[in-house]
């Protein structure tokens, strides 16, 4: 989006920049805020995630604080070997020189294992440890944060923290429990550490909305060293496949809470329960006398219990961690297989002929922009220029092309994304965030700035001001894109956004015309909407998704009359949209007019009570119609980010098309995807999946309104 900015906004821009700097958000204009990447993902982990292969996160406090050297190092390496043997990629999380590493090398593991100064890093400790450049082992809480940010869904540990004994008086409650309540990670453990108050811990987990299940046929909730704690789990899963279904369901619902999968220690390794319980009581009494509490209590208790049981508790600890790693890896593999199931069948006649493999990947190409977004949202419905306004500022990754490729990737497709980024501080962050996408077509250009965009919005979500540095999009040239001509000519569909140069759009349309490939044009904004319509290139388009203002721009470029003032009532808006869409339908198959809070209007050839979305061959035969779908209800408080809703809508519609769904279902998928986007800090919701927008599985707050069919004049 591009808006002209007058001088009277200069003070506001200074204030926005100041707030960005104060919040530590990097911009390429400032060396002071240069961010070289606080989260570093190991190449092996990054590659596995990009290819949707199973990855298992592992904590590191067991290395830095849980066991003595060299037992800690050997256990860590054996656990990683078990994960690999089961077919998954291990990603041990740790803090090195103030950076969170997701995946450690052998040398880094050895360094942490021998370090005498490593911190124990939970959520509260991350900012301080990073600011000081410290090293440390991440707790369950700290590891969950890093794993979720990296896109890992399964995390294996020994046992989770909980409510300490006498916690009703001390209020000593582990941050692991609150993290489970707000981070959607499946934590595989041997239950709750036996030094804790297990009953109160389970009650607290229930309050946090955490789904707790025992792995296996028993309903008994394990107590770390013992398969039984005297308490039962609410649920149980019999095997890895059932656990994978549970995780997938949690992700699809978008609950933003984790799962606790409690795995009983194998009976042959379980130490005598009473002996360990007596040792725990003795250790607790000694800790009380010595005044040991807080983060120092658990390591002290474990070491003391190990001494009192003459090593039996340490042996049991190692055995249960090995078993958890085995079970967790099997669950991760089952989850990966579940996500790789075939979700679509090409319906275009030419798509089947051009499929080069038999997997579930779609043959889509997306060409467009990617940028770093800074969203500043005010806490009032009216912003006052020239002074500081209360609000919040967050960073995300957007760009119309990126948003389309992102949403399609999260809904079972794998489009080739063609774009360009610079070699500044943002480029690594962009590629890391987009690791789930096929970014092999993204050019990394020296001495260029990655595109950035800053939006200032009111409390109700209305845009007050937008600034964009998008010059790099002009580097997505015809010469560069032509390198992928084989991919373009064999695509099922090409999606192009208005950020790229006119010459590149003309080239893509030429390839599409020569090879009968449908093109979806996303106009991006009013200034760019006209690009294909400056020549006959627009006649090669099959779909476009403008808003009403952008549709006016398209008509103006073609020399058709447009209203001087856009209408405001729904009836007038629909009438105007139909009239403006009609000239385009002489060549385009469908015009999707996005109407914001009024919903969406599809214009095209009538079929089965709606507009035919599936790519067609030959000329139109049916009558033209328009179908209006109302938007899903959403309050201002629920709207966090407005920058990606339209792109998510298009992504949902396209995903439905490639699953051969009927038009009503395709549009409802788009509306659900848009609703998730509006409620997310990211332009495309990170929990977006096919299941989370499946209208057969997800019901909106109110029942689906009946679409309104309108006939268009020939």
UniProtKB/TrEMBL annotation:
Residues 362-680 form the Carbohydrate kinase PfkB domain. SUPFAM superfamilies: Indigoidine synthase A-like (SSF110581), Ribokinase-like (SSF53613). It comes from the Eukaryota. Residues 690-714 are annotated as: Disordered. One of its GO terms (molecular function) is hydrolase activity, acting on glycosyl bonds. GO terms for cellular component: cytoplasm. Keywords: Glycosidase, Hydrolase, Kinase, Lyase, Manganese, Metal-binding, Transferase. PROSITE patterns: PFKB_KINASES_2. The keyword Manganese applies. This is Zgc:136858.
């Amino acid at each position: 989006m591009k808006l002209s900015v007058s001088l009277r906004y200069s003070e506001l821009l200074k204030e926005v920049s100041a707030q960005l700097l104060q919040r530590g958000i990097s911009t390429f204009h400032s060396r002071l805020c240069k961010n070289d990447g606080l989260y570093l993902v190991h190449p092996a982990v990054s590659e596995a995630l990009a290819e949707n292969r199973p990855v298992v996160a592992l904590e590191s406090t067991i290395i830095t604080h849980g066991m003595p050297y060299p037992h800690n190092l050997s256990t860590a390496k054996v656990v990683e070997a078990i994960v690999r043997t089961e077919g998954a990629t291990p990603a041990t999380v740790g803090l090195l020189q103030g950076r969170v590493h997701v995946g450690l090398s052998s040398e880094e593991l050895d360094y942490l294992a021998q370090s005498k100064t490593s911190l124990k890093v939970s959520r509260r400790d991350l900012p301080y440890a990073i600011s000081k450049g410290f090293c440390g082992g991440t707790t369950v809480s700290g590891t969950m944060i890093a794993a979720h940010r990296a896109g890992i869904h399964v995390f294996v540990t020994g046992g989770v923290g909980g409510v300490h004994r006498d916690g009703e008086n001390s209020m000593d409650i582990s941050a692991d429990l609150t993290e489970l309540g707000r981070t959607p990670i499946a934590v595989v453990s041997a239950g709750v550490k036996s030094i804790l108050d297990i009953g109160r811990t389970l009650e607290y987990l229930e309050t946090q909305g955490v789904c707790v299940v025992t792995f296996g046929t028993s309903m008994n909730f394990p107590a770390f060293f013992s398969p039984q704690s005297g308490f039962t789990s609410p649920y149980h899963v019999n095997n890895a496949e059932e656990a994978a279904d549970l995780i997938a369901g949690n992700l699809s619902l978008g609950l933003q809470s984790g799962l606790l999968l409690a795995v009983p220690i194998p009976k042959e390794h379980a130490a005598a329960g009473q002996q360990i319980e007596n040792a725990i009581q003795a250790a607790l009494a000694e800790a009380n006398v010595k005044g040991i509490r807080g983060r120092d209590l658990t390591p002290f208790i474990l070491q003391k219990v190990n001494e009192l049981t003459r090593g039996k508790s340490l042996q049991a600890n190692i055995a249960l961690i090995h078993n958890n790693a085995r079970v967790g890896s099997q669950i991760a593999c089952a989850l990966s297989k579940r996500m790789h199931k075939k979700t679509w069948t090409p319906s275009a006649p030419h798509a089947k002929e051009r499929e080069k493999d038999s997997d579930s990947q779609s043959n889509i190409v997306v060409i467009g922009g990617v940028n770093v977004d800074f969203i500043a949202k005010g806490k009032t419905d009216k912003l006052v220029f020239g002074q500081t306004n209360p609000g919040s500022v967050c960073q995300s990754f957007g760009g119309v092309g990126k948003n389309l490729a992102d949403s399609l990737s999260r809904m079972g497709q794998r489009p080739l994304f063609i774009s360009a980024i610079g070699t500044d501080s943002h480029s690594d962050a962009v590629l890391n965030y987009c690791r789930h996408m096929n970014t092999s077509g993204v050019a990394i250009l020296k001495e260029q700035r990655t595109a950035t965009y800053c939006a200032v919005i009111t409390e109700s979500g209305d845009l007050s001001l937008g600034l964009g540095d998008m010059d790099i999009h002009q580097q997505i040239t015809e010469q560069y894109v032509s390198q992928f001509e084989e991919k373009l000519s064999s695509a099922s569909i090409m999606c192009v956004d208005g950020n790229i140069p006119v010459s590149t759009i003309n080239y893509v349309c030429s390839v599409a015309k020569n090879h009968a490939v449908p093109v979806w044009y996303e106009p991006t904004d009013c200034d760019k909407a006209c690009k294909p319509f400056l020549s006959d290139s627009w006649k090669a388009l099959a779909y476009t998704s403008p808003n009403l203002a952008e549709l006016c721009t398209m008509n103006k470029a073609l020399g058709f009359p447009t209203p001087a003032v856009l209408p405001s009532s729904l009836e007038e808006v629909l009438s105007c949209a139909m009239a403006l869409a009609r000239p385009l339908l002489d060549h385009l198959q469908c015009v999707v007019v996005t109407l914001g809070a009024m919903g969406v209007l599809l214009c095209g050839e009538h079929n089965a009570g709606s507009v035919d979305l599936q790519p067609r061959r030959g000329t139109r035969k049916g009558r033209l119609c328009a179908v209006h779908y109302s938007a899903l209800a959403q309050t201002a408080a629920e709207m966090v980010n407005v920058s990606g809703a339209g792109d998510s809508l298009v992504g949902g519609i396209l995903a439905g098309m490639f699953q051969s769904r009927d038009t009503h279902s395709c549009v409802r998928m788009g509306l659900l995807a848009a609703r998730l986007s509006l409620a997310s800090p990211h332009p495309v919701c990170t929990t977006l999946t096919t299941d989370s927008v499946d209208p057969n599985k997800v019901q909106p707050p109110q029942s689906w309104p009946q679409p309104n069919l309108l006939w268009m004049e020939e």
